[in-house]
């Protein structure tokens, strides 16, 4: 084990565990009045609790924590538990996003388990209840996602931090949710339109990954520590750049990733028909070079349910030959450099600067 | 026109107009950053704005306003606009509830217009986009409802009232949303189970109408005026009782109402198969009196799409003969009396006491 940075604190080393602990406590507290009111509420409350505690990298609370630490938040101070509550609430927003996303995408499984709408539909069928099991599953997923969104606010605003601090983070907190929903909407719209535009794909990455996952969590954490405008601006710039770089690396892994490392089938993004920047770039270059046959082949793999190994191989070769891979790799490098420059200019309290730098490097170079 | 009470203020007389004005201002403010980010967001933002401004009795803001006035809130003071913003935010929670409810119920129209999921499905079909129009409509409704829920918090917490006041109303604000969602869930579950229990029907009324529509809005308003525990307890008691009485009156109108007055077809609750207290009481009494044939006839009308005039007539007669109508009328009277006693004990600042009394009388005696 690498020795921890001298200035680091035990919580720094075990953030996902701490976040899970705090979530467990607050989900119990939030569920209690509902369980007491009516035993039937145990079902949706348990479903949400299991979903939230069942996994996830706790990325958003982690960025919020480092935003707070970087702006001088002191984990040995009296407010640490309250701060952990505030940043852990971001996992409930993410739970809403995922439960509703699975419903909108008609996905059957997540993390190897049935999605919420599938599971509630199954319970309806098993019990032999009246009406449509599918519609009951839909209702379960809609309401559990709504509950997650409502409870996120409850955790954030009632975490016990001084009201003035919460008020200073409120604009970022509210903007984050609008950006998340806007990103989801643009994603749905872009798929429906069959858009091949690089701009549209990039815009989704900017909202869903950069703003919602990185920049706003950093912003919220820093604001909760009382950061000034210039520190927040530098962190947001870092988040905006590194967030898109993360997503571009994801796009690359979605086509070129090794199933043994990513845990997903080879070429999974092609099979799912994802409108990524990588793919949009490939089609853009094919058009610019009048290579219509190649563009047609590339399009034919998109959303193809029975994608063969040969198809994946051919798609990879096309994306390399057309120059899309080079372009995306170049963009990742540029975004990472500009992100790290913004980070260096922020002058964060250590070890936050070092840790964010390490997160940035790991995520843009990662293989899974 | 009846002269206004000497202590009344112009806003007291035109609450729905004031609420609509404030909602318009804030929906514009909240939508602006999204419109600027991406022109496509105009669609969901406009859809939500039109939905919220398109109608509704503004019941929840009205109760919150009178809770505030009753606890000494002064409309000539400097905080009135901020208070109107806080109480108007309740309409956004209601927008989420209705948009998601229409989706869960597969309702095609609301207030004579297509529901959100139907409208977004239509746009998809008209544009000839890829994928399922129905699934696109579903996504539109899920995201627009989520946006309403997120914006409700934004309006409430950023209304500009002193942070300590918001903090004192926060527990009620959060409880209200859990109660609304719990009520919706119990409603879906009760329909699926085909429950005939009076208790289950009453529990839904307590959550959806009493707590969510009356008691919590009164509580929030009073807390925003700095009310003490005993005043809040009296208002909540009033709300809990009168809210159920409202719903029982609604149940009566849903079977016995005159279409010319209610604006809905005769016996509409029967056609929709609603599991009301009235109906559950009818079945309970039929069982107690071993009148199986009557119970079977009553059940046969529930959810019957081609309900005839004769069916409605027979159902009405059955509910009267079985004693369900008398029982429900008695319960309305008792609840109204106990609500008015709680109101009298609250010692509200006038004209709030008088107005709440008038609202209670009108709603429990109303014909539409």
Automatic annotation (TrEMBL), chains A, B:
Keywords: Magnesium, Metal-binding, Transferase. SUPFAM superfamilies: Terpenoid synthases. GO terms for molecular function: metal ion binding; prenyltransferase activity. GO terms for biological process: isoprenoid biosynthetic process. Coiled coil: none annotated. It holds the Pfam family polyprenyl_synt. It comes from the Bacteria. Its cofactor is Mg(2+). Belongs to the FPP/GGPP synthase family. This is Geranylgeranyl diphosphate synthase type I. It comes from Tamaricihabitans halophyticus.
